[in-house]
Amino acid sequence: MKRTSMLVGMVASAALALTACGGSGTGAKGDSAGPGSKAAQGGTVQVLANAAFSHLDPARGFDGGVNNFYRLIYRTLTTQGAAPGAEGTKIVPDLATDTGKASDGGKTWTFTLKDGLFFETGAPITSADVKWGVSRAWDPEVGIGSPYAKQLIDAPASYQGPYKSGDLPTITTPDAKTIVFKLKKPFADFGSVVAQNTFTPVPKGQGAGNQLDGKPIASGPYKVSEFKPGAALKLVRNDKWDKQTDAVRSANPDGFQWTFGLDPATIDERMIAGQGTDGDAIAGTVTAASVARIQTPQLKQRTMTGINGCTTYMGLNTTKKPFDNVKVRQAINLAVNKQTVRDAVGGSALADIATSIQPSSVPGRVDYDPYPSPDHKGDVEAARKLLTEAGFAAGFPLTLDIRAQPKMQAMAVAIQQALEPLKITVKINTIDTATYYEVIGTTSQQHDAAITGWCPDWPSGATFLPPLFDGRNITPKGNSNLAQLNDPGVNAKITEISELTDVQAANTAYGELDKQIMALAPVVPLLYEKVLMLVGSNIGGAYLHDGYSGGIDLVSVGLQNAGK
User: Three-state DSSP class for 304?
Assistant: First the structure.
């Protein structure tokens, strides 16, 4: 998960996550008279948003909100389904005719493109364009998004993408419809990997630098007609997209209109009032202050709720002193008052307390608490004992990175207050929301700790622990391992599990690895957040997609009455 989520890219303050997100939340789907009712053809869906998308370039963006958005304008070899519940997390063909054919013991994967595929320019989408798009993942400046292509596809160690290094020989295109990937080792679930944004086709020779951040080249049902960074984004129909080739996207609206930069409280007020075009609007999770206000029968008809399938956590940078000392990290895990952290985001209506790294949405997850305290309010005395043993009884300063949002500020203050009795002085460092993940994912810019989160990219333990804790995958930019943990025992266990051919056995093993990692305390699991959304009275076709941080699935949403 991808660095998660901005919950359908609408209100970044509503989600706390670092990655791409193929989660498995559980959400109410709306009753027949409300958001779950049928969407008609036509009209424009309005989207009210606090923060802009991280990147429009699919090789760069990697959070739940932008991943959801990408499916409107881009297509990949496979994709997640469009349906409520578990059906929405199933991997189905998209540009490809099937989910891939494995050979060579699972080290070689072949995909065949459908007929009738075109870019918005009218140019046909070929296997060479898919290869070019995937090859961009190795570019050190562009390829800062999903890491799976680089981790799994066999490429020369010196390869730096098509703009600098040219052709990648381990991806071959025997003809215009066929693309073949050579992997480093067998990977039974590669059909899910090619649903990642890095497998978006890009016309061969294009996409260098910031080109696609300013003007994407659409392969999906919509294209960008207007983009004012940080202010507005408008999508209109892509007339080169053929519904006959796409079983996933309903594409009912004529377009989408995002308005960025709105205060979360203002968004709540507009959604509650539902006046004018706000009746055609969707947004992110409501703020804590509005939870009680949406309990009226009229507003409940427009409410959707569920677990977002992600874990919000505080990463501890193990390369910086004193966080290179495991007892210091364990002490912080013991001291944090998770009740006050949950209160800061709105209480039990908006979050459950997290004890393990993996959320309940991940198969094989084990329910346990490695650092218990009465009512999850923190055990200061036990923490103080560990700090004394580590030689830090006098405390130390800590710089905590957060996004520029009131909700994040409130969480940071709760942590600041919890650590104060240990003489740990927390300095809160606020970073612009739109660039937050990119900044904390640049190892040279990381501070001591950061509040973020993670959602699974598809329902598998392989998409949760390895991206966050495999020390061999630490990169200068686009780094998912915020703790920069490089533990030989953890690395070896990840390798061992990755070689299992039984997916269920692998997920069980990842559940046990969660315990092994938490003994090292590289992160403080904080919350399993919930989605609580209010949609406009004219919204139809809306359900909470289990694969996108529990947010509304954008490829199915529309208006009940397009002419209203």
Answer: strand
